[in-house]
């Protein structure tokens, strides 16, 4: 791969990463806002989901752009040489993990809406974090997913801005390229994300399911169906 091709791929990946970071920031804020209570959460979710769940926005933003970004990342991973520093190494490992998880996560969450007509709002996350069979596993899953996503996004945005080297953003570049700024941002955002998960779990306020019983029953049916399939599989073995 020539130097000019490598630079072009880096710039294209930087642009696609910055575009996707806009959605990811809105999505992560959605979960952090759970700290403010269900009413505030529902208002914020209604506002942002109206935008990023619109078909003309959702398909390119949640499917096309990240697919393009991942393909370019894999292409670079195959051809790159040298030993990266610790920050870059963790950044890449987070990216590899997200590649493995991302589309399954999207299919499950959006599939609930497409196949069952159930939007994945506050109650879906709250249910998985309050059900005795699910809460521990899902808390670890959500926390790791959030931590990996935040780490990869924050470091990636810093790298993308440096790669694109937009003259008007030079003052910002001096700040976002500092490791202390990057790590502090990651720590604050990840901590807020974990606290948001605890809010979903009812640690900071009681979760009221009045008026949402149909949603809870829907998730219980899915869980029971899964447990039935697992039970049948175990019996066959």
The residue fraction in helices comes out at over 70%
Indicate the overall shape.
Answer: globular
Low-confidence region ranges: 232-237
Based on the structure given, which CATH architecture is correct?
A: Up-down Bundle
Order of helices and strands: HHHHHHHHH
Q: Total strand count, please?
A: 0
Count of runs of 4 or more consecutive helical residues? 9
Write the layout of secondary structure elements.
Elements: H1 3-32, H2 38-52, H3 55-79, H4 86-116, H5 122-128, H6 135-164, H7 170-176, H8 179-200, H9 213-236
Helix pairs in contact: 1-2, 1-3, 1-6, 1-8, 4-6, 6-8
Structure characteristics:
single chain; 237 residues; mainly alpha; 3 helical TM bundles of succinate and fumarate reductases; 9 helices
Explain this structure.
The protein has about 240 residues and is mainly alpha-helical. The protein has a single domain, classed as Fumarate reductase/succinate dehydrogenase, transmembrane subunit (3 helical TM bundles of succinate and fumarate reductases, Up-down Bundle). The protein is built from nine helices and no strands. The protein has helices spanning about 5-30, 40-50, 55-80, 85-115, 120-130, 135-165, 170-175, 180-200, 215-235. Helix 1 packs parallel to helix 8 (about 180-200) and helix 6 packs antiparallel against helix 8. The longest helix is centred in the middle third of the chain and has 31 residues, at about 85-115. The protein is globular. The N and C termini lie far apart (about 50 Å).
Summarize the structure.
This protein is mainly α and 237 residues long. 81% of the residues lie in helices and 0% in strands.
């Amino acid at each position: 791969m020539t130097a000019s091709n490598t630079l072009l791929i880096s710039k294209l990946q930087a642009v696609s990463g910055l575009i996707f970071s806009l959605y990811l920031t809105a999505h992560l804020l959605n979960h952090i806002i759970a700290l403010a209570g269900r009413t505030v959460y529902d208002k914020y979710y209604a506002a942002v989901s109206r935008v990023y769940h619109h078909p003309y926005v959702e398909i390119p933003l949640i499917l096309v752009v990240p697919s393009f970004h991942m393909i370019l990342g894999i292409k670079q991973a195959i051809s790159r040489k040298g030993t990266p520093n610790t920050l870059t190494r963790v950044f890449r490992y987070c990216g590899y993990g997200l590649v493995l998880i991302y589309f399954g996560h999207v299919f499950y969450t959006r599939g609930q809406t497409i196949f069952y007509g159930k939007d994945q709002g506050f109650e879906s996350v709250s249910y998985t974090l309050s059900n005795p069979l699910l809460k521990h596993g899902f808390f670890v899953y959500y926390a790791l997913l959030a931590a990996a996503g935040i780490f990869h996004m924050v470091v990636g945005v810093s790298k993308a801005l440096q790669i694109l080297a937009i003259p008007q953003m030079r003052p910002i570049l001096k700040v976002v390229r500092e490791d202390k700024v990057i790590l502090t941002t990651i720590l604050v955002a990840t901590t807020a994300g974990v606290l948001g998960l605890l809010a979903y779990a009812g640690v900071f306020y009681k979760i009221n399911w009045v008026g949402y019983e149909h949603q809870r029953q829907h998730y219980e049916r899915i869980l029971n169906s899964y447990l039935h399939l697992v039970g049948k599989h175990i019996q066959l073995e």
